[in-house]
Amino acid sequence: MPRRPTIHDVARHAGVGAKTVSRVLNGERAVSESMRARVQASIRTLGYRPNSAARMLRKDLTRSIGFVCADIAEPVQAQLARAIETVARDHDSAVTVSLTDHEPDRERDAIESLTSRRVDGLILWPTGIGSRYLARLVRDLPTVCVDRPIDGVETDTVLCDNRQGVREAIELLHRRGHRRIAFVGDDPELFTQAERYDGYRRTLADHGLPVDAGIVVRGNHQVPRLRRQLAHWRAAPAPPTAILAASSVAAHAVIRAVDADDPVTVLAFDDFPLADVIRGGISVVSQNVDDIGRAAAEMLFDRLAGDQRGPNHLRIPTTMIARGNDHEHDQQRS
């Protein structure tokens, strides 16, 4: 394993003293802009990161953490940010949110911006794509991943139990008499979507039901295309009687595409605003986002307090929220 660059390596590379590098790292003003730029260029070239363990021993904490996510307008990520901020406030710390728009380059820019401000740790909703940069980052900065892990990079993680959530959804639909259950999901390369589709496939098999590729849409669920697909299904000899939308984004697309007089039942993974009133109430698999956010933040602050145990991996169970007229029938049968 190559030796980790030190502050002295940066100083030699930039042609300055170690104290100058330290001043740049600490954001002190007593450094000219040209000198600061030279040191920062050497830091990037060498891949230097301050040693977080040493900082913790010195109690050199900034009382700030970063939350890097794809889109704060998305309901789950917005709720996560609030839960993380609540825990951070209890630890007398602030949270800075940076967005990636699912792009690895923007993810790196966001993380570099936060580390340049010397945040104490990160909670990361990763793009999922591993890199040597991220491998170095998590070695030097306490990092907890939510929603999905980083491919090939070991970190603490707090994830939703995707497979079990889908199992409960299919079990509910099966109890309600549905045997032709369509699946509409996001990009199949996404970690969460792969797990949810696997849960769908396994649960159907457990009930002796085949997986019909003709009623599976993964990735391209733009509303006009999906509307044509639903019309094709409805005209088929054995149309699906229920649709499992494997994310809130997929659910919104399905709801906009389904005709008002289409009797198909829609069930969504992730709760969303107005789900309790749309189409008489849509049943959902809730991720318990507050629990995920709080657990991730507490895990990070445990690291900052000196927890040196191996990587922690926590799965938060989902909650099935049954709604609609079918729910009343379920209650009458129970």
Give an overview in words.
This protein is an alpha/beta fold and 334 residues long. Among the domains are: 1-48, 434 Repressor (Amino-terminal Domain) (Orthogonal Bundle), CATH 1.10.260.40; 162-287 and 320-333, Rossmann fold, CATH 3.40.50. Helices cover 46% and strands 16% of the residues. It has helices at residues 7-14, 18-25, 33-46, 52-57, 75-90, 104-116, 132-140, 162-175, 191-206, 223-235, 248-257, 289-304, 325-333, and strands at 64-69, 94-99, 122-124, 143-146, 156-160, 181-185, 216-218, 242-245, 265-269, 283-286, 313-316, 319-321. The strands form two sheets. A six-stranded parallel sheet has the order 2-1-3-4-5-11. A six-stranded mixed sheet has the order 7-6-8-9-10-12. Helix 1 (7-14) packs across helix 2 (18-25), helix 5 (75-90) packs across helix 12 (289-304) and helix 10 (223-235) packs across helix 11. The termini are far apart. 37% of the residues are buried.
Descriptive key words:
Rossmann fold; 13 helices; 434 Repressor (Amino-terminal Domain); elongated; 12 strands; alpha/beta
Brief characterization of the structure:
The chain is an alpha/beta fold.
Low-confidence stretches: 327-334
Tell me the radius of gyration: 24 Å
Biggest sheet: strands, sense, closure?
Answer: 6 strands, parallel
Q: Give the strand order of the largest sheet, numbering strands 1, 2, ... along the chain.
A: 2-1-3-4-5-11
In round numbers, the mean pLDDT is 88
Class per helix and strand makeup: alpha/beta
| DSSP strand content | 15-25%
Multimerization status: single chain
Q: Indicate the CATH topology of the domain at 162-287 and 320-333.
A: Rossmann fold
CATH class category name of the domain at 162-287 and 320-333: Alpha Beta
Q: What's the helix-strand series?
A: HHHHEHEHEHEEHEHEHEHEEHEEH
Corresponding CATH superfamily of the domain at 162-287 and 320-333: Response regulator
Gross geometry: elongated
Helix run count: 13
| CATH architectural category of the domain at 162-287 and 320-333 | 3-Layer(aba) Sandwich
